Amino acid sequence: MDTIKNTANYVSDKVQGAGHGASKEANKQTAKDSDAPVGSRIKSAGNAVSDKAKESKSDTSAEANKQAATH
C-alpha cells in the first residue's frame, strides 16, 4: 500500500515541479522584457526565484518518493 502512495506522491510532485518550472520561465521572460514596467520586472524576477525554489523542493520530494516506491 505504501508503494502505491509513494508512486502517487511522486507523480503529484513531478506535476507540481513542472508547473513551477513553467511559471519560473514565464516570470523570467517578463523580468527580461525591457518594455514591461520596472515594478513588474522586479516582481517577476522575485517570483522566478520563488518558483525555482518550489520547483527544486518538488523535484527533491519526487525523487524521495520514487526511491521509497522502489524499495
UniProtKB/TrEMBL annotation:
Name of the protein in question: Glucose-repressible gene protein
Location of region: Disordered: 1-71
Biased composition (Basic and acidic residues): 22-35, 51-60
Biased composition (Polar residues): 1-10, 61-71
Protein's organism: Phialemonium atrogriseum
